[in-house]
Design a protein that fits this description.
Length: 134
C-alpha cells in the first residue's frame, strides 16, 4: 500500500512547473511505483492555449474544476471541458487545450511517466525522459 497527500507532495520534486508557463503538475504516482500507469494532479493556468500530441502515451484527463475546451486538430472539433468532464486521448489525438479559467485536472498516463517530463516541440513526452537540469 502506498499513501501520498497532494499538499505534502506539492513542495517536492514531484511538482513539475512547465517551462512554457502553461501548467504545473504534481505527479503522485509514477513509473517507479510499478502500477503500469501514472497519476497526476495538474493545474492548467488561466489563458493557457497550447498544442499537445502524446505520440508515446495514452492519457485520460478528468476536470475537477475550471472551464476550458479541447480542440482535436485532425477534425477541428471543439469540446467544452467543465467540472465533471473527462476527455480520453485513446488515439494519440493531436489537440489544443485552452483554459478560460484556471483548471484543475486529474491525469492518468499509460505508459507511466518517470516524473520529470515536460513537453517537447511536438507537445509530446519522450519515453524515459531525462531529468531536468537547472
Ligand atoms: C492535460 C495535460 O496533459 N496537461 C499537461 C500536463 C500533464 N497532465 C502532466 O504532465 O501531468
Amino acid at each position: 500500500m502506498i499513501i501520498r497527500k497532494l499538499q505534502q507532495e506539492h513542495d517536492t520534486e514531484r511538482r513539475i512547473i512547465s517551462p512554457d508557463g502553461n501548467w504545473e503538475s504534481t505527479r503522485l504516482l509514477l513509473k517507479d511505483d510499478q502500477m503500469g500507469f501514472s497519476f497526476h494532479i495538474t493545474t492548467i493556468y488561466k489563458g493557457a492555449d497550447f498544442r499537445i500530441h502524446y505520440q508515446n502515451h495514452l492519457e485520460s484527463v478528468y476536470c475537477i474544476s475550471g472551464q476550458g475546451e479541447v480542440e482535436t486538430l485532425d477534425d477541428g472539433k471543439k469540446y467544452p471541458i467543465r467540472s465533471g468532464t473527462i476527455y480520453i486521448l485513446d488515439k494519440h489525438d493531436r489537440h489544443v487545450l485552452r483554459a478560460f479559467t484556471e483548471m484543475k485536472m486529474a491525469c492518468v498516463f499509460n505508459p507511466p511517466l518517470s516524473g520529470k517530463e515536460v513537453h517537447n516541440a511536438e507537445g509530446a513526452y519522450e519515453l524515459n525522459a531525462d531529468p531536468i537540469t537547472e
